Amino acid sequence: MLSVHERSSRSFTKSARLSVATLLGLACLLFGQAPAAFGAGAAGTAAAGQSAAMALTVPQTQTLKLLHFNMAGGAKNNGTYPIIGRIIREVQERRPDVISLNEVCDRQYAHLLIQLEAIGYSMQGYFQESRTIVPDCIVPPDTRNEAGNAVLVRGTLVSDQGYMFTSDHKLEAREQPTITESRSVACVTALFSIANQPVKACSTHLAPKESGAANPYAAPEAEAKELARVFGPEASAGSFILMGDLNLQPGNPALSSLYAPEAGTTGQFWEVDMHFYCDEEFCDGPVQGGDPSHAEGKIDYTFVSRKHFSFEHQNVQMVDAGNCDDHPCSDHKLFRSEVYLHQTTTPYGTMRNTHSNKCMTVTGTVNNAAAVQFTCNTTSTDYRWRFEHAWWGEYVLRKENGGRCLRLPSSANVGAVQTTCDANNTLQRWNPRYPTADMLRNVGSGKCLAVTNTVNNSAVIQTNCSTTAVPQRWTHP
To answer: Whole domain around residue 234: which residue ranges?
Structure first.
């Protein structure tokens, strides 16, 4: 766990920015709860002294490296290829899993795919045009003249989808722009190594501000709200990455439709560069923010669905793109980040107590029925449970028969029950594998799941966590 006093390398005038992981660590100290596990493979590594057979099997976690870049393919690079060379160098250095590109000419996108193959780092992707004719993209005798957005993945491409913003800033699922349209979204759905967890990744570039208008940001604000309207339900239901130049700065009210409620807003996404303001005694946030990506400030964003990803703030970098021949490669910075994709579920299996060698069960499907231990029956659906990722490395424990979840009625040392699943209820959320690889700590109470004896039909309760108490140790499956 990160120290409470560990600081991000980037600071503010009166306070330092901490990683989200650090703030969670602070919360752990204040409320006696366990920090979420971070990083690839964190969910699959037993604590010291614990064998793999004596541990809780929870959904896997995979690190994904993301790169977003408004490459100014026409405006700064006139459709030529030196900018592609800059992206290739970035790929060789960072080896990203997902790339989002704005203002990419179709000929540049095609050349990028060829160059990726040439360096042995093939990626699959999708290019969605934004405008039908872009003179800056034409390099005779090549007559290709389209520009738009692209998204590429280092995974198995399942599907792709283009979207267009209408002239009145409504988002529609179609690929071909009309003559009056100029803004689009490119999306792919892909599988990474966590094969049961398809990820939708999209790249967009919203309308620019209109200087001199009563509200210069009316167009990008309307389009940001459309992103939330169209993609918010998808991000609630499944893994989603949304990257792009939104032409809006942090704090703009329209962005509230994207940011998750924990940031004081109403959306379904975390933004990977959101941060906390901290001093030595107090942290406030998370808040919209981040380092500048452009001369106007931070206008480029990487959003991930809040239920499926976690991340650390130190994993974000804004990097100057440098020069391409005799000119700046872009007026935007390369936006690097890393996120942790959490597998949705584990297979159903028994929850066996190490002390009693009996399994947790709840008879039937009635809400508030008590959880007890009984001689294990591996085929009965009343004995079979699975972990489902709720948010930020915390899980609900769902029973196969009836689909209800394990819950504690309060923070007192009382028996656990089953009830209708609600991942927003902290008394239904659990930190598995903490304090050791075979313990299960409740998020709401900070106490651990246990039995009190070895007798059939005796209650499964919560009690103060102790790493020396064998009745608090479990295996799954």
So the answer is: 61-342
